Amino acid sequence: MIVKILNKSSKDFNGVAYNDKKIDKGKGELLLMKNFPAYLNSASSRQEVKNYFKAISNNNKRVQNPQFHGTISAKGRLYSKEQLALTAEKFMEKMGYGEQPYIVVFHNDTSNNHVHIVSSRVDKHSGKRIERDFEKYKSQTALQEVLKELYGTDVHKKLDQLLGYSYSNSSQLQKLLENSGYSVYEKENTIHILCNGLHLMSINTGDLKFSEKNIEDSRKKQIFAIFKKYKEVFSNSVFKVADEKGKYISYQSELQYQLKKKFGIDVVLSFKDDKQPFGYTIIDHKAKAIYKGSEIMKMGDLFKMTSGVLDKKLFEILTNSNITIETKEAYKKHLEDEYKCEIRDYMVFLKNSKKTAYNIWKETRNSTMDHIRNFGKVSSPEDKIKILNFSNELYVINGNDNAIFMLKELVSENYQNLYLSRLLSPQNFESHPIVSGVQVPVSSDFREMLRRSSLFDIAGPSQPANEEHENNRRKKKKKR
Length: 480
Hints:
The protein is an alpha+beta fold. It is 39% helix and 23% strand.
């Protein structure tokens, strides 16, 4: 997780309005509203909440920037909104805001789960300014303490473990640390290590313990065999990942993803600016060692370089999704339509299991059933899912959690039939909202899918043979 303090001055507490608009658009959810008087609650208007914050701040008009506005973000969907709410609550206690009124709003409009926190820097009891000297440094320290207490995440302990790896030069050490979430820079023969802006350690380059030991032949043969086998199993086509400014930030492939997941082997490609990679490094977490890639296999033999480029946000959505071989094409088409782009097959990394986190499955299932019950009514901002037809199959998209399910596997047959029956109602039969707000004509293939369903009797007159077949099907079902 990372924390940011947003220092844009606001005596009017515009952070409240900003988060309220997110909620109105269905892109935010109020998780916590603490230490407010009884007459203020989740049903109160944004103006009422803002007025209360301003009333507190008026007790000390010397405070030029009374609004406290910060964010806590997780990588992808690693932490749930409930975990983020608890983290925010503990964080505010350590920052000296435990007794202050504050709101915590969850945002679902990016690929990374995150919450916004808004409070007042004027103590509601004493009217004194809450200490904000070195606030950014203090916030990093506070978050690290909270993560250690709640989840056992200790960046210092992890750093000690990484420094115990075997590496032959400072460049390899830097790749190891940066690939593990640390920031590193070297100045005047000293390596400085930071985590989320918090300085953790400085090491004199003369004190680094480089390993002169070459990779053991047995381990070299193991990794070579793994590379040789799995480059034929998974796509080894390498593509660029670019940030919002179009700057290339990494080179990725499905092979790299699967090697790390299956064997704890990180393969990091080295490049400069927008030029093609010139080499690669192997981080072997099992052996706690770092190797030069060419010691194992030539880069040209391991990878195929492509000209493909994928936006960082899309890359994170795809890697944090639950895509399987059954849902790959439907989800890829959905994202291409959503982001007006082209996603190559080799950019989609399949998951080995259909298992999805229970809370995501349950929320998606409940939202889908609500959606079906209310089908045909004006869609509301609270709609969390979309039902789409792809290749004569119905899929459910949960954009908040980057999840896709086949409708027939998510809900009961009764709910699927209810959805299909409402598609066949006079007002919906000629058009179908495949994606919320977009009207798409019902194709002849989709009509055929409806006719194949058990709802043929709702669709209209049927052939006697079909009716007899349906009666036989129902009898067999009863016997089961």
